[in-house]
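Inverse folding, one chain.
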């Protein structure tokens, strides 16, 4: 592990330990100490949820520049973008789960659907997105799993398990994987736009908060998601990956240029 990655892991671990007290309080006392009021109708969990779901959508859409549109300047960070999208999605769903009054009833959105609820549609879209994202990552990573399975030890055993018995690395198999990834990434673009635009729709129809509603909010959320996802990927590549700025200088510059454009569009809105 590089020095930067180690520092990041230590800081992240310290913050995680600091947050455990809040998690324990939530699990033991429920919503007693959340501090809701008329001026503050939503807890910080929802603020984090909106932030991380934007990171996920943005990172995924940037990965689509590689796997759908074939932009070679981002090819080396395509897998990182997909993994960032998955981790951000799971983190966002964790925060939503913590915000539920009865955490054990999370499945009610599937067993007792409300077809007129924007939030219900968003959850269903998240579920489809999670399945699609997991499948795309598997097809992208399958060749690496197969190569890793050739060794010995627990890591090789884990890689063998993750191949699910599909260990063909022939040209036809690899070409098939690329085609499947492109199809999944293409389907994922409107899906990511739909679920994060849907998150913006929740704000668009919440007229009780001045300056926090309006018809542009779904579009603003998409642009902000791309900007935040691009910023996160830029930070990871430049400061977390060992010698990332040296080995991926072109990717960092390209991401910075894309980020500047997105911030400009976001500012215009």
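Residues assigned per position:
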């Amino acid at each position: 592990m590089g020095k930067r990655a180690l520092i990041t892991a230590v800081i992240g671990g310290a913050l995680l330990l600091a947050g455990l007290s809040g998690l324990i309080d939530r699990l033991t006392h429920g919503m007693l100490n959340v501090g809701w009021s008329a001026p503050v109708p939503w807890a910080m969990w929802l603020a984090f949820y909106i932030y991380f779901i934007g990171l996920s959508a943005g990172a995924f859409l940037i990965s689509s520049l590689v796997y759908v549109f074939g932009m070679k300047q981002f090819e080396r960070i395509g897998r990182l973008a997909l993994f960032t999208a998955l981790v951000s999605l799971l983190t966002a769903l964790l925060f939503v789960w913590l915000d539920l009054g009865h955490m054990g009833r999370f499945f009610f959105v599937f067993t007792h659907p409300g077809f007129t609820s924007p939030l219900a549609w968003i959850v269903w879209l998240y579920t489809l997105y999670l399945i699609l994202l997991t499948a795309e990552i598997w097809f992208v990573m399958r060749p690496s799993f197969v190569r890793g399975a050739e060794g010995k030890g627990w890591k090789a055993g884990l890689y063998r398990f993750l191949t699910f018995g599909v260990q063909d690395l022939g040209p036809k198999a690899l070409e098939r994987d690329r085609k499947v990834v492109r199809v999944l990434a293409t389907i994922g673009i409107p899906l990511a736009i739909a679920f994060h635009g849907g998150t913006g729709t929740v704000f668009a129809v919440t007229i009780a908060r001045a300056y926090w509603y309006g018809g542009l909010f779904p579009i603003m959320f998409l642009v902000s998601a791309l900007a935040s996802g691009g910023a996160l990927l830029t930070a990871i590549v430049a400061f977390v990956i060992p010698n990332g700025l040296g080995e991926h200088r072109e990717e960092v510059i390209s991401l910075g240029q894309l980020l500047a454009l997105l911030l400009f569009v976001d500012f215009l809105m």
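The chain has ten helices and no strands. The chain has a mean pLDDT of 83.
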